[in-house]
């Protein structure tokens, strides 16, 4: 057993040994009470690595008398599924834990689904990806609950580490370890709420530390060396990666410089520079927009520089871009106006293009009535340039107004011009 990783050995054996996720499996939850009474519903467990999906499944199995079969969908085949189906037919009911459930193919699902539906197989599926995006609807519909797990708090991780240190049977309890509360806290913080990483780091620290006078003495420098990059998580294209992109954009939109830099740092550590640059460029026009039109050009220059430089130097222009966007005036009026126009078209609010706006660059255009257009540049108006009061929208939409200016930054000046032109138009319809 000692050859197995500490994180594996310390898996909870029943519900009472689960640390964290009390909103799902705490003693006052419906799930805890059902399992204690011997009833286990099919369910999906969704959360980041190390939050306890596998631990909860094993704890539920340890709290029931059901035959338990763990499978990983990345390596399981149709034969594995058929064996479990055969076991279910023999015993009447089995508990199947299916890790990485979103990777199950259609053939495997078709073999499994009828038995989940009739209750002979109780399915506990685990996934790091959003089940509403990546789990087949047929599986979702047969799972009564979708539980979203949270990262463990530093206090919960410290509790787990202390349990591993004193456990003589499964943990490190048979060794004399000299480690301080502060050092345990540092390990917990470095693990970033990931129980598996915390236990793995503790085990690595234990074996990297020197034994002096029969005691394993843990030093701060060992923890610091082994902690680098341990908190980084977010596969390219995975749900967590898109959550990070979403958090970055919402933090910039909310003008929180520190949160924005935190999420940018996390994204850059995943290595997908192109996706980050694309999102930053979208943000420049979606969230800053007309309030500061120069930002779009600045962010484009920064993202092009970042792609030319590559990581780690790419972080320098991107940091500039993110901070500038955070502290810039903001407006979403431009794309909102366009969306309003698109919605009007989808609702059937269309009409004929006025005759004087139609193409007249060919012989015969006058015969078709494509006449009457007035060239605005021939009608100067103050320092604005040229403007003439003529109809541009179709007859049935000539009073439509899609643009609603935001009084912020540079758009405040644009809004003044917009309102002035509306006034002139209304005076001389």
From TrEMBL:
<dbReference type="Pfam" id="PF00004">
    <property type="entry name" value="AAA"/>
</dbReference>
<protein>
    <recommendedName>
        <fullName>Replication-associated recombination protein A</fullName>
    </recommendedName>
</protein>
<dbReference type="InterPro" id="IPR051314">
    <property type="entry name" value="AAA_ATPase_RarA/MGS1/WRNIP1"/>
</dbReference>
<dbReference type="Pfam" id="PF12002">
    <property type="entry name" value="MgsA_C"/>
</dbReference>
<dbReference type="Pfam" id="PF16193">
    <property type="entry name" value="AAA_assoc_2"/>
</dbReference>
<dbReference type="GO" id="GO:0016887">
    <property type="term" value="F:ATP hydrolysis activity"/>
</dbReference>
<dbReference type="InterPro" id="IPR003959">
    <property type="entry name" value="ATPase_AAA_core"/>
</dbReference>
<dbReference type="InterPro" id="IPR027417">
    <property type="entry name" value="P-loop_NTPase"/>
</dbReference>
<dbReference type="GO" id="GO:0008047">
    <property type="term" value="F:enzyme activator activity"/>
</dbReference>
<keyword id="KW-0067">ATP-binding</keyword>
<dbReference type="GO" id="GO:0000731">
    <property type="term" value="P:DNA synthesis involved in DNA repair"/>
</dbReference>
<dbReference type="GO" id="GO:0005524">
    <property type="term" value="F:ATP binding"/>
</dbReference>
<dbReference type="GO" id="GO:0017116">
    <property type="term" value="F:single-stranded DNA helicase activity"/>
</dbReference>
<dbReference type="GO" id="GO:0003677">
    <property type="term" value="F:DNA binding"/>
</dbReference>
<dbReference type="InterPro" id="IPR008921">
    <property type="entry name" value="DNA_pol3_clamp-load_cplx_C"/>
</dbReference>
<feature type="domain" description="AAA+ ATPase">
    <location>
        <begin position="39"/>
        <end position="151"/>
    </location>
</feature>
<keyword id="KW-0547">Nucleotide-binding</keyword>
<dbReference type="GO" id="GO:0006261">
    <property type="term" value="P:DNA-templated DNA replication"/>
</dbReference>
<comment type="similarity">
    <text>Belongs to the AAA ATPase family. RarA/MGS1/WRNIP1 subfamily.</text>
</comment>
<dbReference type="InterPro" id="IPR021886">
    <property type="entry name" value="MgsA_C"/>
</dbReference>
<dbReference type="InterPro" id="IPR032423">
    <property type="entry name" value="AAA_assoc_2"/>
</dbReference>
<dbReference type="InterPro" id="IPR003593">
    <property type="entry name" value="AAA+_ATPase"/>
</dbReference>
């Amino acid at each position: 057993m000692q050859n197995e990783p500490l994180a594996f050995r310390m898996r909870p054996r029943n519900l009472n040994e689960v640390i964290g996720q009390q909103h799902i499996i705490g003693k006052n939850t419906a799930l805890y009470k059902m399992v204690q009474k011997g009833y286990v519903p099919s369910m999906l467990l969704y959360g980041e690595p190390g939050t306890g999906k596998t631990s909860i499944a094993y704890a539920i199995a340890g709290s029931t008398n059901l035959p338990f079969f763990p499978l990983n969908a990345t390596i399981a085949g149709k034969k594995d599924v058929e064996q479990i189906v055969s076991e279910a037919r023999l015993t009447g009911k089995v508990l199947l834990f299916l890790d990485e459930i979103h990777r199950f193919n259609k053939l495997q699902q078709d073999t499994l689904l009828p038995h989940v539906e009739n209750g002979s197989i109780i399915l506990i599926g685990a996934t790091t990806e959003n089940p509403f995006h990546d789990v087949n609807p047929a599986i979702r519909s047969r799972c009564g609950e979708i539980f979203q797990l949270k990262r463990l708090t530093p206090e919960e991780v410290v509790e787990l580490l202390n349990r591993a240190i004193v456990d003589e049977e499964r943990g490190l309890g048979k060794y004399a370890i000299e480690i301080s509360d502060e050092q345990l806290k540092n390990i917990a913080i470095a693990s970033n709420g990931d129980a598996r990483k915390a236990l793995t780091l503790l085990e690595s620290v234990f074996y990297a530390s020197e034994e002096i006078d029969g005691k394993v003495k843990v030093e701060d420098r060992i923890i610091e060396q082994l902690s680098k990059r341990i908190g980084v998580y977010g596969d390219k294209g995975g749900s967590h990666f898109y959550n990070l992109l979403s958090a970055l954009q919402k933090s910039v939109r909310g003008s929180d410089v520190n949160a924005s830099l935190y999420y940018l740092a996390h994204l850059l550590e995943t290595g997908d520079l192109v996706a980050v640059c694309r999102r930053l460029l979208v943000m420049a026009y979606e969230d800053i927009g007309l309030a500061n039109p120069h930002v779009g050009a600045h962010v484009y220059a920064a993202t092009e520089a970042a792609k030319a430089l590559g990581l780690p130097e790419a972080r320098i222009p991107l940091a500039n871009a993110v901070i500038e966007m955070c502290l810039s005036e903001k407006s979403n009026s431009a794309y909102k106006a366009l969306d309003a126009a698109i919605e009007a078209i989808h609702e059937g609010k269309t009409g004929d293009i006025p005759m004087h706006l139609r193409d007249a660059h060919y012989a015969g255009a006058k015969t078709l009535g494509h006449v009457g257009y007035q060239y605005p540049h021939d009608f100067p108006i103050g320092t604005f340039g040229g403007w003439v009061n003529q109809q541009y929208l179709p007859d049935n939409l000539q009073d439509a107004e899609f643009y609603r200016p935001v009084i912020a930054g540079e758009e405040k000046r644009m809004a003044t011009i917009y309102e002035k032109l509306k006034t002139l138009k209304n005076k001389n319809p």
